[in-house]
Amino acid sequence: MTTVPPPLPYRVADTWAETADTRSIELVPAGRKLPPFAPGQFAMIYAFGVGEVPVSASALQGHHGGLVHTVRAVGAVSAALCRLRPGDSVGLSGPYGTGWDLEAAVGHDVLIVAGGIGLAPLRPVVHAVLDRQAACGPLAVLVGARTPADLVYRDEIDSWRGRARVEVTVDRPGPVWRGAVGVVTTLLDRLELRPERTCALVCGPEVMMRHTARDLVARGLAPHRIQVSLERNMHCATGHCGHCQLGPLLLCRDGPVVGYDHVAPLLLVREL
Q: pLDDT tens digits, residue range 156-212?
């Protein structure tokens, strides 16, 4: 039976608020260092005395040279992580799971579609594509959130404009919002897709990913050109607890990044 190795000690180098309930945490090794992470892979982060949770890396190299993880406080462990301050310690193990296939971006247009905190696992892809723009076609980033206050990385998103096509929409705009309103799939109407040479990477709530992938296929994108990150209920990172099962897949082991051509039939089955 595969087991998760003991976590290595990591120190909080910095932490900052993204939204009212979401923080980014930069972690640096306090001794031995984990192997390099690929965009889309996740770590098991252990909050001492509380428990551990899987969290995808939201940046592979922060300002202090460490791994960055963006965490929303939705349970006891994630809330404990959001309370961390510089100098605190956590346990870290990884990297786990499959990453985004960035080789598919070489020579192709790149379309990134993110819903809510689903932008976190895609953020390293934006960094990688911008770093190698000469090898890739145009980059488009479509971002959706519930409200303007729920948008993560707002300043950084603005900094991508000019180097990428960036469109942002919210479900509930509020009195001062001047941008687009509606679900993120409505932003596809603003693009002139070249489906035969576009690769799409999608992450967000599962219903959003289903609708986005189906819309992209309807616009001519082949299913094998669409990658989705299915982080549903990941718990143990080794595939033995079964919490993240999707049909024949155990997503912490076989995912979280998978081709839509492999999972499209599974996502259409209710309650699977």
A: 999 999 899 999 999 999 888 999 999 999 999 999 999 999 999 999 999 999 999
d(CA 208, CA 113): 10
- Type of residue numbered 7: P
38-83 pLDDT, tens digit per residue, is: 999 999 999 999 999 999 999 999 999 999 999 999 999 999 999 9
Q: Is the pTM of this model over 0.90?
A: yes
- Identify whether the C-beta of residue 197 lies closer than 8 Å to the C-beta of residue 109: yes
Question: Which regions of the chain does DSSP assign to beta strands (E)?
Answer: 8-19, 22-29, 42-47, 51-59, 67-72, 89-96, 109-115, 139-145, 165-170, 180-181, 198-203, 226-229, 245-246, 249-250, 257-259
- Closest to 56 (Cα-Cα) out of 184, 237, 224, 210: 237
Characterize the bridge pairing of strands 109-115 and 139-145. parallel
Cα separation, 213 vs 208, whole angstroms: 9
Q: Please say whether the beta carbons of 59 and 127 come within 8 A.
A: yes
Strands 257-259 and 139-145: unpaired
Block residue for tokens 């999608």: 202
Contact yes or no for 81/47 (Cβ under 8 A): yes
By residue count, the chain amounts to 272
pLDDT for the residue numbered 1: 47
Q: Would you call 68 helix, strand, or coil by DSSP?
A: strand
